[in-house]
Amino acid sequence: MNLHRKLGRRAEEGNPVGVGLIGAGKFGTMFLTQARLTTGLHITGIADLDVDRAQASCALAGWPEDQFTLGDVGSADNRGPTVIGDDAGALIANPAVEVIIDATGHPSAGITHCLKAIDQGKHVVMVNVEADVVAGPLLARKAEAAGVVYSLAWGDQPALISEHVDWARSCGFKVVCAGKGTRYLPHYHGLTPETVWGILKQYLQVDENSDINPKMFNSFLDGTKSGIEMSAVCNATGLKPQAAGLMFPPASRFELADICKPEASGGKLSADGTTECVSSMYRDGSDVPHNLVMGTFVVIEGETDYAQECFRQYHMLQDKSGQFASLYRPTHMIGLELGISVASAALRGEPTGSPICFNSDVVATAKRPLKAGEMLDGEGGYMVWGKQLPAATSLQLGGLPLGLAQGVKVTRDITEGARLTWSDVEIDEADQAVQVRREMEAAFGGSERL
What we know:
By secondary structure, the chain is α/β, with parallel strands linked by helices. The protein has helices at residues 3-12, 26-35, 51-60, 88-93, 107-119, 129-146, 157-170, 197-203, 214-221, 224-237, 256-259, 305-313, 339-348, 391-397, 432-444, and strands at 17-22, 41-47, 68-70, 82-85, 99-102, 123-126, 150-152, 174-182, 274-279, 296-301, 317-318, 324-329, 360-366, 375-377, 384-390, 406-409. It contains 15 helices and 16 strands. The protein is globular and about 60 Å long. The model has no long low-confidence stretch (mean pLDDT 95).
C-alpha cells in the first residue's frame, strides 16, 4: 500500500523506473495514457513493428508531441522524450530499462522477448497472457533463477483474480471457486471474425467501420480468451480446472455463491478449488440482471458456524445455506491499472501474480471440419477455439496448445469439435516457442500444486 511513496522517492532521486513497452495496441495505449501521469515512472522506449501506429497511440493517449520521438530505442534514456522504434531487441538491451512489458498478444514473440529480457536482467510484465499459457511456468522459473520478476499484468483479469485468491487464503478461507464474468452462448464457439459482427453491433453498438479488430474481439466471445485467462489463474494459484473445462453457467453477481459451488452442495461445479466463468446471458439469449460481465470474483467457504454467522452480520453475499459467500470486483480497467505491476516488480521485487505450476492448459479445438493441407489461423480465427483442460489431460492427449495453432498445416481431416493434437499438424521443431513449450512440458509434466 505504499507503492506511490516508493515511486515518489525514485522521482525525488532523479531516478525514475525505466520502462520498455513492446506493442502499442489497445492494452499498451491504455497503459501509456496513465504512465505519463505516474510519478516515478518513465517510458524509456516503445517498440512496435508499426512505428506510425505507436506514434498515433501516444497521441491518442494524450501525450504532447514533445514527449515522444522516433529514434534508436537502444540508446534512449530516462531524461529526454520517449523514443519510438521497431527494434524490440535493442529496447530490451537498453541499460536504462528496468522493466519490459510485452503487450504484443503474439505467443511466439512474447516468449522470445521474455527470454531476452531475463538474459538482460530485466523484470518482465507479461500482458501477453497467450504466451504465459503456452510456457509461463517455465518462464517464471527462469526469471526467478536469474533474480528477476516475471509477472502477470495487473488490470487484466488473471492478475486480479489471483489477488482475490491470495486475499482469501491469507485470511484463512478455503477457496471454492475464482473466475470472471463474460458473455456466452453455446453457439459462440463457432463464431468467426466475419460472424462476430452481429454480436459486436448488439453488444458494443459498433459496425464494420469501427477500428475494432474482429479477430481479437472474437477470441473473447468464442470461449478462447476465457480458457486462456482461467488457465493463467490456475497456474498462478494452484487452483485446478474442472475435468470438462469451463461450463459458463449464467449467474448474477448476487448468485455467485449459489452457482459457483460444487454440485454436491447444490451448485454447478464438478469440484471445489477450481475456476469458472459466469455468463451474463441466459441460454435463451436474454440478459442476466445485475450480471458481472466485466468483473471478477472469488467464492469462499465459511468452515465454522461463527464464520458463517459473521458472513451474515457483515452482509457478505452468501448462498442459500449460508456456508459459502462471494466477493466480487465489478469491473477491470486493463492497461489503465498496469502501473501497479511495473511498480511492484521494480520497487518490491514482487509479481502481481506469477505461474507456480502447470495445472491447466488450453487446447486447440476445431470450429468446423478441417481438411488436410489447411493452414490454421490461430486465436479468434475461423478454424479453432481454445478449450481449457487439466494439464495432465492435455499432456495425455498430446493436445496442441492454442497458442501454437497459428500458421501450421493440418496433416489429416479433423471433425468439428475435435481437440487437435501435435500429430495433427506439421510442427517446426526448430521454432523457439515450440522448443520452450517442449521444455516446459518436460519440466512440469502436468504437475499439481496448491
